[in-house]
Amino acid sequence: MSLPNEDKTKGRRVRDFVLALIVAIACATTASSQTSGCLDDAPAKNIELLWAMAARGELLTPEGWHRASGYFAKPNEQHDDKVIEVMSGYYGLNSYSNDGKVATVDMEFTDAGKIDSSLHYTPPKETEAYKTAFRYKLVAGPAYIAWYGPDGKAVQQKAIPGEKAWLIDSPPPRPWATVNAAIRYVLEMRNKTNDPIIKKNADETLSILLKMH
Amino acid sequence: MYLIQSNGTTAVVQAYTGDGQQMWQNNFPVLNANNVPDANGGLLIVENQTCTNGQTQSMSIVDVDPTTGQPLWQINAAGIPGEGQGGATLYCFPDAPQMAVRGDGTIAISAPGNTSGLPEFELVNGTTGSAGAISIPPSLFMDEFGNVIQGYSPIGAPIVDSSDNTYVEYEVRNVNSANQITSAVLYLMEIEEAGPITSIQLSSTTSNENMFPGRIIPDGQGGVLATWVIVPSNGSIPANPYQAAYVISGAVTASYSLPFTPRNFVLGPDSLPLSPSLVLGENGVAFATDGASTGDITNGQGPKIVSFNFASGAVNWTYQPSTQSALSIIATTSSAGVAINDSQNGLMQFDSDGNATTTGTTSGGIPQYSWTQNWYTQGGVGLSQLAPPFGLDPGGIWATPNGNPSQSSAAIPLCECFAQSTDPTQTPENPAIKLTSTGTAMRTGQSPVLAQPAAASNCPVCTLPAPNPPSQTTSCTAPTGGQSTFVILVGDPGINVATGHEHNVGDLFNLAAQTQANSLQSQGNNAIACRVSTIQDVYHALTLNGSISGGVYYFGHSGVFDILTAAKVRISRTTNVFVGQASGSNTNITALNVNFLSPIQTANAGGNFLGPNAAMTINGCQAGLTVFDTSVNQYASIAQLISVNIARGVFAYDVGIYFSQLDAQQDQHIRGVGLYPPDALPMYVVPEGSPGQKPGPLACTPTQPYCVKN
Questions:
Q1: A83 lies in which domain range?
Q2: Which domain range does residue B249 map to?
Q3: pLDDT tens digits for B310-333?
Q4: In chain A, residues 35-94 whose CB comes closer than 8 Å to chain B
């Protein structure tokens, strides 16, 4: 049974369109795209996507962390859920440069504290700075596609000739979330625990985070 | 008022005054049914949203001028090259773009469908038509060769709540080569009026089923009810296919099934199941209808109108006629009930307890009401006005299925005077002015989404909008005439980004600038005040107001900008002038872009726009503070660098500043913590320091390496 919006003719159209989309995406992610006229903003988009994951709270789950590891050249598959960093919901690209091999992306943010495994909130260190930004250095490496091996099960990878992927050239930091995602995280963790101390910590943390929303 | 008549190939749009006089009439290509008014009285229409064999015309979204009927701007959807007949470009637009209009005129447009030719979601400037795409995460599809490719994620219709925040749902799917949905996650994206974008997860599944986005309505208190439809891939239908989540402060506080149990889906023109229509009633009640039904699985009856609790989903009452009836909600009523149209029984009104009153049938289409609280139907002979059969709810912020009488998917009550809100964020708080650790003056208790306080009287600067390039490169007060010309630059008020970083000062920079302007004018000078949000705005303000013989004053944010590694280790420190409150390099004046100002030296017919005796004074925090600026590997302050680039002296503080109604000589505070200056004149920017010994600004000159004490 096809999906309601995917009859056979439309299915063909969908596939064709997806292929067209892939061409566009490849253009956007090609490091050597200066020669093709494409604006190579793929490194900045990667950072935006990573932060979008943080805003959705996806970096707080092992599955999300695993997916986010794909943005790093030296991924850390081990999800550290002991402490999470909280960042302001207001963030945005500040400056960006790209020489085709190395890209630098500054993501403006405001530190909003951290939450430990007992849902206790610690405020951020005071800073003299009016504004702060994270600087990400990204390097271009080969891009891969995945397909199933001869046994039909094992996923294998193959480099795509001429295509490059931009990866963050530093180890992944602690998992982080924006304020809204942190509120949802604390709500969920509070509902899962029977420990009265953790519940109390959660209530105090929520009262602080809700003021930041 | 607009009347649109279409014969399938062309359309005629007529504009009428409120008393029925025709203003203009214009012909357009075929239009769809999703036309909505813009925020300026014009009309947003969608042309050529069709998919016909050999179609050669692109779909367009056109903004029509309310006074002339002529297009103001338009957005054209792209075709798919090579996929049409004989290898031509394919123009096929089966799915209608969905639009919601913000109070500031911005239009949120979602473009469902794989072939829409538009960004899946975008915000469009209602004045210029310039668009900015909002990234929707792609779904992943695996082809028969095992390649994982990115593709379209289903998206719903956007809405705008009463705080001008925009919401839209989207579903991110993983589909394997057997066309099975291995996982699907439904998200709700919120775009705050001030800019931040967040998405939260509403639901997820691994049961080979879709969760197609449904309707969203606001609760009037900062929360929203987001709905969706569960559609299994195997063609079955769940017992409760329509689901809802109540979202408050970015978190799902309740999820429940909407009380509909249809035997079959009723499909819309896009072949997707129709989602129930919703309106917001009073006292935490919402009304919903599934419109049409081939039979309820529990009793064989037809579609329903239900009243239910917004927060819990508990049903208050239900009206369910036979399957012959088609139901539509018209609007909520002043008796806390709802008015509906039943195709079999005519217009009906239900009170808050579900008691029905039938008021008869009407000729023509389903009645709609207008902002003037008149009722109209559009039939074969044109537009007819009806006697109001119901008392409408003038304070209802989502009184019709599309929000308001304009059907613009925005939360606007029929009459603002009746609007009531218990939303604490909507209650103006007493602004407190204090200093951050950086010495930055700021106002506490204000959200960036709140409207600015009412401007003080006699403050023309307070009413200046930010420039809107490229059509409006400057936003300045008119020259007053006088001996010497001074330009006063006023930056953005700032945004409250987190606790301890509440940068929004409201009108205080404006008031300080107005005080400066009044002082200069009283001395017989020509004072021109300009709002600026970017370094380009600063350049334009300094080069498009003629020769500046007197000097320049800047009132706005400035200070230290730290760059950190992901491990929060500081790797760079600079001082910046934070002209604008948005992110982006051009919103700040930094060591890396300050040379953008240097043409000021020669742009005045080969000379400097700033006269030989003109200097610039930066009334902001720490712009004169010398730090080792790692972006240029030298000790510098942004004030010093500005001085070099404009070839004139610059005065700037190396300490923080705060606001006071007394000037620096008279103010008796060390800093601004706990001060509550009113939104009134006069207003002064005062440097931190002991009373009577306040530091003056440092003096920076083009030829010296550092700013020095004056």
A1: 5-212
A2: 136-257
A3: 889 999 999 999 999 999 998 888
A4: 45, 48-49, 52, 55-57, 88-94
